[in-house]
Amino acid sequence: MTHNLYLALGSNLGQRHANIMRALELIDQRVGSVYRVSSLIETEPWGFDSPHRFVNAVCLVHTMLSPRLCLEETQLIEREMGRTRKSEGEVYADRIIDIDLLMYDQLEVCEPGLVLPHPHMQERDFVMRPLREIME
Fold this sequence. Notes:
Blueprint: E1 3-11, H1 16-30, E2 32-37, E3 41-43, E4 54-63, H2 67-80, E5 98-104, E6 109-111, E7 114-116, H3 125-135
């Protein structure tokens, strides 16, 4: 059975647009078919100070993987692209790529390291604007 997975992508280091495009390619290869991608938007960092602006997007993926496997694959993609650490608690930092699971069908999940829908997505315009764009 195919599931609808919404992912948020962000990059504020290096070739930001190319980083997003590479992440989308890897997601398509490993997580599922990238069905729809929002426009890329440039935004200020959220939750921390940095001189580096972000490029953000949201995509819809048709996947056969479980939510946990989707998380594991996206974290592997982040590491392979050069991300050295995930944010801990509310401490954010510059990053080559960030991939967050937003929603997986209508499923609600509350497990260690995995909460769906994403608990902070409603507070983040850089997530909600592109999400609304591809949900229309």
